[in-house]
């Protein structure tokens, strides 16, 4: 099984992704900020609706769902994404910066997976 680990700096803290690539699919752990955790889990499968569980008090499903859908669509394979990124007292501008960082990291992931597939 192949594995990728990458990170980007965002608002003074790392946002880190670890991806396991078994024979069919992708398993992703995306965490970061000042308190990495698990806030939401999304699973996407070709031809089916994405399933997401978001834990109480968290807002990570927007990122986990987006990543699961994007990875599934690009590689036509199941994708499971566990996500938890937390910053204390995050402003609207700070939230936009975190989301941008996650999008850039997803592009990095696409580039790296494309190279090893």
Cα(first) to Cα(last) distance is 12 Å
Instruction: State the major sheet.
Output: 6 strands, mixed
How much helical structure, as a percent, in the residues? 25-40%
User: How large is the count of helical segments?
Assistant: 2
**Rg:** 14 Å
Given as residue ranges, the uncertain stretches (5+ residues, pLDDT < 50) are none
What topology, given as strand order, has the largest sheet? Answer: 1-2-3-6-4-5
Instruction: State which percent range the strand residues make up.
Output: 35-45%
Average of pLDDT: 97
- Taken from the alpha-carbon principal axes, the silhouette is globular
Assign the structural class, choosing from mainly alpha, mainly beta, alpha/beta, alpha+beta, or little secondary structure: alpha+beta
* Helix/strand order: EEEEEHEH
What does this entry look like structurally?
The protein is α+β, with helices and mostly antiparallel strands. The protein has two helices and six strands; from the N terminus they run E-E-E-E-E-H-E-H. It has helices at 61-75, 92-116; strands at residues 2-10, 13-21, 26-33, 40-44, 51-54, 79-86. It has a six-stranded mixed sheet with strand order 1-2-3-6-4-5, covered by helices on one side. Helix 1 runs parallel beside helix 2. It is globular, with a radius of gyration of 14 Å.
Output the keywords.
alpha+beta, 117 residues
What is the structure about, briefly put?
The protein has 2 helices and 6 strands; from the N terminus they run βββββαβα. The chain has helices at 61-75, 92-116, and strands at residues 2-10, 13-21, 26-33, 40-44, 51-54, 79-86.
